[in-house]
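STRUCTURE:
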C-alpha cells in the first residue's frame, strides 16, 4: 500500500511551490492537498476557533479551505483523509524560513500542528526564489520524505528544510543545522491613504541574517540544503533551574 501523504502550505492555491511538490511526492505515495484559499504567510501556528471552516473540492484529492495553514494540517489529517497520513509535508514556501522566521511562518506552523497531532512532518522552503527553482526544492522534499518514512522521527520533532534557489545539480550537499539569527527591521513606516488616514508598514525590508557556523543561514549561504530538527517543547531547562532560586513564596 502506498504511503498517505498530506500536502499543505501557507501560500495558498496559487503558491508556485505547491504543484511541483505534489508532483514530486506522487512518486512516493498517495498525495492529498489541503491548502488555504488565500495566502497565509506569517500566520504562524494559529488555528480557527470562532468561525466555521468552509471546504471546496478542486480535484479528486485537492481541497481548499478558508482557514490557516495549521487548520489545513488539522482538518486534512483528522477529517478529510479516510486513514491517518503517514507524513505531512508543508510547502514549498516562497522564501526562507530560517532562524526567527520559524516563529512567524505559516509553513512551519502547519508542520508543527501535524507534529502536535502525532504525525511525522516536514516544512520545506525555497530561499530567495529569484530564479524560482521550485523543482529543486520539490526533489529535496521527495528525498527527505522518503528518509522520514523509512526511519521515522523522534516524538514531538518535525524537520525544517531550507533549499537554496539553485538547479538540482548546483546544490552543494545537505547538512543538519541549528537555527540561525535573522534580524527583522524595527521601523514602522507611516503613510497616508487617499482619504488622508494613516496606515503603517511593519518590518519592511527582507530580514538580514548572521551566518554563524553550523546554522541554517550558513548552510544556505554555502549553497547547501539546511535541515533543522524543531521540537515542540520549548521549555528552557537552564532557566528552569536558575528560577528555582527566586523567592516564589512571595508570589501569592
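SEQUENCE:
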Amino acid at each position: 500500500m502506498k504511503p498517505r501523504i498530506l500536502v499543505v502550505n501557507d501560500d495558498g492555491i496559487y503558491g508556485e511551490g505547491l504543484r511541483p511538490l505534489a508532483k514530486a511526492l506522487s512518486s512516493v505515495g498517495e498525495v492529498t492537498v489541503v491548502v488555504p484559499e488565500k495566502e497565509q504567510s506569517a500566520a504562524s501556528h494559529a488555528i480557527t476557533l470562532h468561525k466555521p471552516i468552509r471546504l471546496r473540492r478542486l480535484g479528486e484529492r485537492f481541497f481548499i479551505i478558508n482557514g490557516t495553514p495549521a487548520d489545513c494540517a488539522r482538518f486534512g489529517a483528522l477529517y478529510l483523509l479516510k486513514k491517518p497520513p503517514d507524513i505531512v509535508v508543508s510547502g514549498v514556501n516562497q522564501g526562507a524560513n530560517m532562524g526567527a522566521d520559524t516563529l512567524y511562518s505559516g509553513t512551519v506552523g502547519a508542520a508543527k500542528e501535524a507534529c502536535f497531532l502525532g504525525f511525522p512532518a516536514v516544512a520545506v522552503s525555497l530561499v530567495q526564489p529569484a530564479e524560482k527553482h521550485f523543482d529543486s526544492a520539490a526533489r529535496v522534499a521527495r528525498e527527505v520524505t522518503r528518509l522520514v518514512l523509512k526511519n521515522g522521527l523522534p516524538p514531538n520533532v518535525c524537520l525544517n528544510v531550507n533549499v537554496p534557489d539553485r538547479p538540482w545539480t548546483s546544490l552543494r550537499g545537505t547538512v543538519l543545522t541549528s537555527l540561525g539569527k535573522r534580524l527583522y527591521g524595527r521601523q514602522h513606516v507611516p503613510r497616508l491613504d487617499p482619504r488622508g488616514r494613516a496606515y503603517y508598514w511593519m518590518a519592511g525590508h527582507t530580514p538580514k541574517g548572521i551566518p554563524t557556523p553550523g546554522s541554517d543561514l550558513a548552510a544556505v549561504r554555502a549553497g547547501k540544503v539546511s535541515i533543522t530538527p524543531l521540537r515542540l517543547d520549548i521549555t528552557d531547562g537552564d532557566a528552569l533551574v536558575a528560577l528555582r532560586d527566586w523567592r516564589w513564596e512571595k508570589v501569592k
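REMARK: The chain has a mean pLDDT of 94.
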